[in-house]
Amino acid sequence: DVFRIEIDERIALSESLSGAAVKAILRENGINDAGQARFFTNAVDTTTTGWEATASWQTVVAGDALLNLSLAYGSFDNELDRLSQNPVLPSLPLLASVSLGTLLDAQIESKLTAAADLDWGRWRFTVNAARFGEYRSPSTPQRFGSEILIDLGLGFDLTDSVSLRAGAINVTDN
User: Fold this and answer.
1) Per DSSP, what are the bridge partners of residue 84?
2) Residues 75, 110 contacting (CB under 8 angstroms)
3) Alpha-carbon torsion 153, 68, 132, 102, what sign?
4) Shortest CA distance to 108 belongs to which of 150, 70, 137, 80?
5) Cα-flanking dihedrals φ and ψ of residue 121, to 5°?
6) Which of 32, 38, 70, 128 has fewest C-beta within 10 Å?
7) Rounded to an integer, what distance in angstroms lies between the CA atom of residue 69 and that of residue 38?
8) Please, which residues have CB within 8 angstroms of residue 130's CB and are 6 or more apart in sequence?
9) Are 70 and 114 in contact (CB under 8 A)?
């Protein structure tokens, strides 16, 4: 899949607006015990582009066991198309570095997943691995490297309609 998603008037959390002008507006509206305001706003247009690919393979192993393997990769990019000015207090931006960073940069740039499922008689075995690509902190210029998470699962079918399942998510504790 290849995609391009344009969102007009995307909803985002504003910056924390403060100062004498903000306090005056809050007081005018009956809010006397707050010194700052933060709210959801639709002051931004964004475009997300990317692509995703998936491959899967299935085979019989050890006579009667069914093995399913899959591999998927996705690449993603977020862009700012429009940012509205604060209509009430133009000197205070509705969205600035932290809010825009959360919206645009704190998202992963890529994701790779691999899965293996083995059905052997009444037993079910599952291993899932996901590699999440780099991302940037919205509040600092720090970039974080990729992380790999591994999930394990085990199941047993007691009857055709009753089964037991157990699993561990993120066994590598990343």
Assistant:
1) none
2) yes
3) negative
4) 137
5) 65, -120
6) 32
7) 46
8) 111, 112, 113, 114, 148, 149, 151
9) yes
Other Cβ atoms closer than 10 A to 110: 16
Contact 119, 66 (CB under 8 A): yes
CA 107 to chain centre: 6
Q: What is the pLDDT of residues 119-166, one digit of tens each?
A: 999 999 999 999 998 877 777 777 888 889 999 999 999 999 999 999
Supply the pLDDT for residue 92: 87
**Taking a C-beta distance cutoff of 8 angstroms, is the pair 164, 155 a contact?**
yes
- 3-state helix vs strand vs coil in the chain, percent to 5: 10, 55, 35
Which residue stretches of the chain have pLDDT < 50? none
Instruction: Identify which of 10, 18, 13 has the alpha carbon closest to the alpha carbon of residue 48.
Output: 10
